[in-house]
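sry for the spam today, last one i promise. struct tokens for design, 346 residues
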């Protein structure tokens, strides 16, 4: 009988590829100075040979946990937010490829977010942190920067001097409003996501700037901040209609708000699209199947999550950064962005 099979090592991958052990190691650990084609060559060779890095031994040597924590902020969506659920798939794939496990923790109250982050760092529960719903002035970001702890955010702050991935919500707000104006609408409401978040403020500025560019002053009565736990899209539409404010079109900060708004429109006998134009954001799966189909914006959330995970790995491997990426969204035209009844589109 032969002895036990020899355990494959990184030198075998190096021999297979004709690259140095150092280059193979850096490729497998996600270093940003390794060319994409080199990384793919190394990963393919490792897969062919059945090589798996000994992450457990590495962890013991470095006292790392090989865990990255994603903190989900205040669950105003009851943790069914399609944006984050789709994003997490991409994050996990990117982390797993480099031997890191993804851990999800939830801040059940807005006020506990900072305490949760501090405990995670001070008690050594993870090697890096990911979180979203950044605020213009964010104490979480400043605290982590001061301690040099690796983190990447989904979203920016006013300073934006750290690693982040963000969707261009200013462009979304501007583009949605511009489209509705070109369809002949001048009374356009904006149902915003919570304005404590930077992305909500960016979308609001885009909305206002598009109105200003066409000489349409923004009416504060047409701007309503929405949540899921209290004032919903349906509540906002009810308020707009019963107050006689009279918008002919609505831009919603996300699809959940838009779908809720559609329910209230139906209750008042208002048809989304023919009677009141509506544009959402995020393209949740049901958006294509309600009524005439909700016009909305789509982001490649899997790719965004992959980018977020790779930025985190780069930080953990000593890449100083900062790395920042602004992602465009695609306008998906369906049946709810129609011209003003009796009006003329440009």
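last one done:
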């Amino acid at each position: 009988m032969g002895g036990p099979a020899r355990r494959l090592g990184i030198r075998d991958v190096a021999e297979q590829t004709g690259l140095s052990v150092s280059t193979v190691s850096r490729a497998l650990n996600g270093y940003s100075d390794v060319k994409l084609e080199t990384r793919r060559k190394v990963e393919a060779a490792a897969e062919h040979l059945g090589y798996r890095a000994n992450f457990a031994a590495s962890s013991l040597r470095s006292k790392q946990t090989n865990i990255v924590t994603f903190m989900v902020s205040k669950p105003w969506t009851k943790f069914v937010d399609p944006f984050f659920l789709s994003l997490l798939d991409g994050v996990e794939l990117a982390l797993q490829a480099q031997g890191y496990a993804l851990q999800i923790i939830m801040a059940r109250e807005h006020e506990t977010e900072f305490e949760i982050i501090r405990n995670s760092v001070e008690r050594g529960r993870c090697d890096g942190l990911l979180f979203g719903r950044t605020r213009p002035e964010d104490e979480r970001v400043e605290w982590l920067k001061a301690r040099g702890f690796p983190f990447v955010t989904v979203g920016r702050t006013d300073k934006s001097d750290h690693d982040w991935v963000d969707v261009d919500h200013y462009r979304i707000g501007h583009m949605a409003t511009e489209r509705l104006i070109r369809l002949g609408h001048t009374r356009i409401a904006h149902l915003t996501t919570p304005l404590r978040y930077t992305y909500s403020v960016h979308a609001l500025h885009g909305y206002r700037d598009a109105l200003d560019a066409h000489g349409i002053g923004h009416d504060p009565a047409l701007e309503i901040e929405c949540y899921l736990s209290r004032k919903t899209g349906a509540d906002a539409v009810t308020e707009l209609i019963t107050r006689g404010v009279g918008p002919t079109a609505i831009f919603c900060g996300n699809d959940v708000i838009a779908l809720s708004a559609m329910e209230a429109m139906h209750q008042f006998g208002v048809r989304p699209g023919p009677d009141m134009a509506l544009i959402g954001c995020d393209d949740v799966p049901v958006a294509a199947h309600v009524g005439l189909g909700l016009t909305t914006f789509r982001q490649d959330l899997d790719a965004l999550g992959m980018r977020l995970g790779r930025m985190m790995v780069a930080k953990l491997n000593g890449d100083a950064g900062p790395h920042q990426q602004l992602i465009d969204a695609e306008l998906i035209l369906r049946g709810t962005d129609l011209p003003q009844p009796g009006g003329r589109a440009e």
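Residues 67-165+301-327 form a domain with the Rossmann fold fold (CATH 3.40.50.2300). ok im logging off now
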